[in-house]
From TrEMBL:
This is Manganese transporter. Coiled coil: none annotated. Its main location: membrane. InterPro entries: NRAMP_fam (IPR001046).
Length: 401
């Protein structure tokens, strides 16, 4: 790759998407409960994400289509197409409507940590801010805002990690030597599941189709990928390690991201608390933009409306998601049943989308850019893991019901 032409782009949106408040909570609990032992799961997640997102980006760059359009065009049997549409709507659109409440709540908690008091009106203000940015219909503006938020998260979470003075020997052991301590299996699955998510496949393919001009831009798209995705993984690793250094083996109970921010004050001082608040705000706001954006790309594509940012079907989709999320966050509602339903749909959608991507990237229309044998072997391995994750996610939700 020619690094002189390097620029961050759609892959940075993917990084912004998978580092949300849910990831902060999951990573914090992983570090507090199991120390550095599960860092290898995040390293694996980064590799799996690189494999899937490279295929999604290549599909978008070469075909100039998003994943939703590709599904609509390539799946000819009506029954299969309707089943795919139902899964996408259930997992991406309905699911993100609920998760949006958590995104706005997380961003609000970050602001509250900075101002030192709670404010019930914050979710509404942040929801309006997200809507204004998306309403602009300016892809370049959205990209720059999200890249800025990723950079802000990187500085905040990595600086917090360095302030708590980690155990470097334990850090590298956990990163490179896989282990599953007693009681940690569900946490391993959660760490992987918060990084390898199906809606990012729609977001990456569609935004790549908008950003890049054609196959000649594949080197730039891949350069963006190999920088942005590992950077997102590094942020998750920093959060796990911060919680591990500060709380593992201590009599401190973390129940959420707000607890992490407040509990860091006696461990690493006021500066770490501020950094964690900034990071949580950036994580929540970035996901508050990418979740509605990905949903609009997915629904518009699969229904044949196209992915124009200023089209009314596109705008109505993300407006509905932001509106529902703002109501949930403002009212403090915890719609557990809907979240469980979305988890089931996501558990089914990820392996199906991974299989479809694998099939689509072996089609003749990609020409010389079809999957090579090593790419197929790597993709099959990730698909097998995706199926296992999907079955476990569905099983856990059904057991809860």
């Amino acid at each position: 790759m020619n690094w002189r032409n390097f620029q961050l782009g759609p892959a940075a949106l993917v990084a912004a998407a998978f580092i949300g408040p849910g990831t902060v909570v999951t990573a914090s609990l992983a570090g507090a409960n199991f120390g550095y032992a599960l860092l290898w799961a995040l390293a694996f997640s980064v590799i799996a994400t690189l494999i899937l997102q490279e295929m999604a980006a290549r599909l978008g760059v070469v075909t100039r289509q998003g994943l939703g359009e590709a599904i609509r065009e390539q799946i000819q049997r009506p029954a299969l197409r309707w089943a795919a549409m139902a899964l996408v709507i259930s997992a991406v659109v309905i699911g993100n409507s609920v998760y949006q409440g958590g995104n706005l709540s997380g961003a609000s908690l970050g602001v509250e940590a900075l101002i030192g008091s709670s404010a019930s009106w914050l979710p509404l203000i942040l929801g309006v801010l997200a809507a204004v940015l998306l309403w602009s219909g300016n892809y370049r503006l959205l990209e720059r805002v999200l890249i800025g938020l990723v950079m802000l998260m990187s500085v905040a979470f990595i600086a917090s990690f360095l302030l708590v003075q980690p155990d470097w020997t334990a850090f590298f052991r956990g990163l490179f030597i896989p282990s599953i301590p007693t009681g940690s299996l569900l946490t391993v699955i959660a760490l992987i599941g918060t990084t390898v998510v199906p809606y990012n496949l729609f977001l990456h393919a569609a935004s790549s189709a908008q950003k890049w001009r054609g196959a000649e831009d594949l080197p730039r798209a891949r350069g963006d990928l190999v920088v942005s995705i590992p950077l997102g993984g590094l942020i998750s690793i920093a959060i796990v390690s911060t919680a591990a250094a500060a709380f593992f083996g201590q009599a401190v109970q973390l129940e959420g991201a707000a607890d992490l921010s407040a509990s860091l004050r006696p461990v690493a001082g006021e500066g770490a608390t501020w950094l964690m608040g900034i990071g949580l705000f950036a994580a929540g706001l970035s996901s508050s933009l990418t979740a509605p954006l990905a949903s609009a790309y997915a629904l518009s594509g699969i229904l044949g409306y196209g992915g124009q940012l200023k089209s009314w079907p596109f705008r109505l989709t993300w407006l509905a998601i932001i509106g529902i999320g703002t109501l949930i966050a403002s009212a403090g509602i915890r719609p557990v049943e809907v979240i469980m339903f979305a988890q089931v749909a996501n558990g089914l959608l990820l392996p199906i989308m991974a299989l479809f991507l694998l099939w689509a990237c072996n089609q003749q229309r990609l020409g010389e850019h079809r999957n090579s044998l090593p790419q197929n072997v790597a993709a099959v391995a990730v698909v097998v893991v995706a199926i296992g994750l999907g079955l476990r996610s569905v099983g856990a939700a059904l057991q809860w019901w």
